[in-house]
Amino acid sequence: MHPIPAVQLEYSPSTFDVEGLRLNILNTARNLLGIKIIAYSPLGRGLITTVTM
C-alpha cells in the first residue's frame, strides 16, 4: 500500500467548511502524517474574478 502524499480540498470564499470540523483532521494529517493539503478552486471557480464565460 502506498502512502497518501496529498489531499485536495475545495477552499474558496463560497466554501469555508475546511475551517470548521475538518480543521483538526487536516492538521493531524499534515503534522503527524506529512500529508500535503492542496487548495482546489481558491478563486471560487471564477466567481470573484472579472472574467465571465
Protein traits:
23% helix; alpha+beta; 1 helix; 53 residues; single chain; two-stranded parallel sheet
How do you describe this structure in short?
By secondary structure, the protein is an alpha+beta fold. 23% of the residues lie in helices and 19% in strands. It has one helix at residues 22-33; strands at 6-10, 36-40.
Q: If you had to describe this structure to a student in words, what would you say it looks like?
A:
The structure is a single chain. This protein is of the alpha+beta class and 53 residues long. The protein is built from one helix and two strands; from the N terminus they run E-H-E. The chain has a two-stranded parallel ribbon. The mean pLDDT is 75.
Q: Sheet bearing the most strands, described?
A: 2 strands, parallel
Which structural class best describes the helix and strand composition? alpha+beta
What percentage of residues falls in helices of 4 or more residues? 10-25%
Rg is 14 Å
The DSSP helix count reads 1
- Give the beta-strand count: 2
| Residue runs with pLDDT of under 50 for 5 or more positions | none
**Spatial strand sequence of the major β-sheet:** 1-2
| Overall mean pLDDT | 75
Written as H for each helix and E for each strand, in order along the chain, the element string is EHE
C-alpha end-to-end distance: 42 Å
Overall 3D form: elongated
Q: What percentage of amino acids are in beta strands?
A: 15-25%
